[in-house]
Specification:
- It is a single chain.
- The protein has about 270 residues and is α/β, with parallel strands linked by helices.
- The chain has two domains: about 120 residues, NIF3 (NGG1p interacting factor 3)-like (Udp-n-acetylmuramoylalanyl-d-glutamate--2,6- Diaminopimelate Ligase, Chain: A, domain 1); about 120 residues, 3-Layer(aba) Sandwich (Udp-n-acetylmuramoylalanyl-d-glutamate--2,6- Diaminopimelate Ligase, Chain: A, domain 1).
- About 35% of the residues lie in helices and about 25% in strands.
- The strands form three sheets. Strands 5-8-10-11-12-9 form a six-stranded mixed beta sheet, with helices on both faces.
- Strand 6 and strand 7 form a beta hairpin.
- Helix 2 packs parallel to helix 3.
- The radius of gyration is 19 Å and the shape is globular.
């Protein structure tokens, strides 16, 4: 398989056209025409992830978060980010980033998060558009129903368990109602809490909620669970499963490896 084979197949699943405007998705580095024998899935492309890729003789790093959000101003290798680029080039590793197109895709990131929570009868949280590949509606986030009602604390513990986090932040009104309907949006979704309310959500799960937005959520009687941005690391195993299936379907002799590193910058103490 060459790198472009995987890129073309993935872009049928999550077309670049459904990414948010200005999102730096797609090929980040390398020559997609080269042969690929080992693909690594990861949430982030960090120096330690690149070291892992080199150790496992990876040819292609497939990440959710784009490696290059901001263009380099120079190639001074004393800068850790620049040194990482140099290592990737030295070892001839292709890097591809699938960000908001994977967030928006049907069967993508936000469906995976909803599955982890056990949500049923899900619909998109945010209005998107029509997928040019399938003709189906798409949108970021999901809203669905729990199999049984939970109080706020029980729901927070449920989130902690299914996402495997050591701690999270719970925002709750003085007298929260029982939770039946839940909205979820991976990444930083605090600004969309009003959309969750409009879709009838009793609780909202998203990361990076700011202080003042937290107060607004309380004022609107919305229970919110912030388990952090890093819960999107579930993409590693889900992408590994999908890519393995595609390898079988297309007779690609490729090993699919999910990064074993935890790239969450935060530690609970």
């Amino acid at each position: 398989m060459i790198g472009q084979d995987l890129i073309q197949r993935f872009e049928r699943f999550a077309p670049p056209a459904i990414a948010e405007d200005g999102d730096p998705i797609g090929l980040q580095l390398g020559d997609p025409r080269r042969e690929v024998k080992t693909v690594m899935t990861t949430l982030d492309v960090r120096p330690e992830v690149v070291d892992e890729a080199i150790a496992y003789h990876v040819d292609f790093i497939f990440a959710h978060h784009p490696m290059v959000f901001h263009a380099a101003k120079n190639l001074d290798l004393r800068d850790p980010q620049n040194a990482m680029y140099a290592q990737l080039i030295k070892h001839d590793i292709i890097v591809y980033g699938a960000h908001t197109n994977l967030d928006n895709a049907n069967g993508g990131m936000n469906d995976w998060l909803a599955q982890q929570l056990g949500l049923q009868q899900t619909i998109p949280l945010l209005k998107g558009g029509i997928d040019p590949e399938t003709g189906l509606l798409y949108g970021m986030g999901r809203v669905g129903n729990l199999s049984q009602p939970m109080d706020a604390m029980t729901f927070a513990q449920h989130c902690k368990q299914v996402f495997g986090v050591r701690g999270l932040r719970l925002i709750q009104p003085a007298h929260p109602r029982m939770i039946n309907r839940v909205a979820v949006l991976g990444g930083s979704g605090g600004q969309f809490y009003l959309d969750a309310l409009k879709k009838g959500a009793d609780a909202y799960v998203t990361g990076d909620v700011s202080y003042h937005v937290g107060h607004d959520m309380i004022a609107h009687d919305l229970v919110t669970v912030d388990p952090g941005h890093h819960i999107e690391c579930i993409c590693k195993s889900y992408l590994q499963q999908i890519f393995t299936q595609w390898c079988t379907e297309n007779d690609w002799a490729v090993d699919i490896y999910a990064s074993q590193l935890n790239t969450d910058p935060f530690t609970f103490v």
